[in-house]
Specification:
The protein has 13 helices and eight strands. It is of the alpha+beta class. It comes from Corynebacterium bovis.
């Protein structure tokens, strides 16, 4: 597929080995440590870090293409890249003096970040932290709780965590606080959680905090009623969603490409089915490229609305074509584990990343009809 080949070529030019090492079998996409080491070795941690902080400062359009290329080679690498990118965007949304050199370290030392923010769930708030911070007698904060699943839980270098901070005047928790600190702090551990063979290499296990000591310098308190809170919501979610779209579209296009190579498109009806699937996915990518230009220039709630709608369109597109792609793969591929069936199943994981359509559609519709800003349940 010419378009996919061009995107892979772009990835290799920007990050040598990012695609070829996976396709040649040098990287086991089902082993989390291999995935993390591959990302560090090929310079991917600094891809989305702004140039002002020493990173590559890729534009949103470029980031989308990188994600497509990574997804075409490994769904695990694409998901890990997306989750790392969410943390990068979250820290980048702070004022430059607040980032305290974190992003510069990420870019220059090729460090990976994990996102231990609330996972959410149908009817469950994304802003309800699962990690609590309580002030200790020596003036530090002690973090307790866990996040599951947490991509790169065992193999990240820096943790970004959504936390509930105990108020000095009451027992209320400040829900929009988050912390940034090194993974090697005492009291941090991981426990097995992800038991599905799909996207296994992303290492999405449980990250556990047991009296993890952090300082005021590691914690950012964000007032939910301020523009800074809006910026956190918009930037982090927009970049994360954009890269997710690219990654899962890449997985799906690689599935179609593999079916062509296996000769599954020889009859007219089968060729039509593959062409329809490829065309629908490429149309979503074209829409994503259009929206991504707004991320670079004038990002706001209208951009967030558009990128979320594009993501949900891709979800429906992948669901609509999955059954036909599995049928074209054939019974033998279904019976035994194979790259083809794993790829096909991987495309359905997009619908399980928050924010979920079922929980967001009323907020999105209100924005469409009334132009009101929207948040996440």
């Amino acid at each position: 597929m010419k378009q996919l080949d061009n995107i892979r070529g772009f990835c290799e030019a920007e990050f040598p080995g990012s695609i070829s090492a996976i396709e040649s079998g040098e990287v086991n996409g089902a082993v989390p440590k291999d995935v993390a080491d591959h990302m560090r070795r090929t310079g991917l941690p600094g891809a989305l870090v702004p140039a002002s902080s020493g990173g590559r400062g890729l534009s949103a359009v470029q980031a989308l293409r990188i994600a497509v290329g990574l997804g075409s080679a490994s769904a695990s690498v694409a998901v890990a890249f997306a989750m790392h990118g969410f943390s990068v965007a979250t820290v980048a949304s702070l004022e430059e003096d607040e980032s305290r050199g974190t992003l510069k370290r990420v870019a220059t030392e090729n460090l990976l970040m994990c996102s231990a923010f609330s996972e959410g769930g149908h009817g469950q708030s994304l802003r309800q932290p699962s990690v609590a911070a309580v002030r200790s007698k020596d003036g530090y904060w002690l973090l307790n709780g866990s996040k599951k699943p947490c991509t790169l839980a065992e193999n990240c270098d820096i943790v970004t965590a959504g936390i509930g901070v105990e108020s000095s005047s009451s027992q209320a928790l400040h829900q929009l606080a988050f912390a940034v600190f090194d993974r090697d702090r005492d009291g941090i551990s991981s426990r097995p959680f992800w038991s599905n063979d799909v996207i296994q290499g992303a290492g999405s296990d449980e990250l556990v905090f047991n009296n993890v000591k952090v300082s005021d310098r590691d914690i950012y308190l964000i007032d939910s009623q301020t523009a800074k809170s809006d910026r956190l919501d918009i930037l982090g979610t927009a970049w994360f969603t954009l890269v997710l779209i690219g990654g899962y579209a890449g997985v799906a296009l690689a599935t179609i490409e593999q079916l062509y190579r296996l000769g599954r498109g020889k009859t007219e009806s089968r060729a039509a089915a593959l062409a329809a699937a490829a065309g629908d996915i490429e149309s979503v990518l074209l829409a994503s490229e259009t929206v991504s230009q707004s991320i670079d220039t004038r990002i706001g709630y209208d951009t967030l609305y558009s990128i979320l709608q594009t993501r949900y369109t891709l979800e429906r597109t992948l669901t609509r074509h999955r059954q036909e792609l599995e049928r074209l793969a054939g019974g033998s591929e279904f019976i035994r584990p194979s790259t083809l069936t794993t790829r096909t199943r991987s495309t359905q994981a997009l619908q399980f990343h928050p924010p979920f359509w079922r929980d967001q559609f009323s907020e999105i519709n209100r924005f469409r009809e009334e132009g009101k800003t929207f948040g996440f349940l």
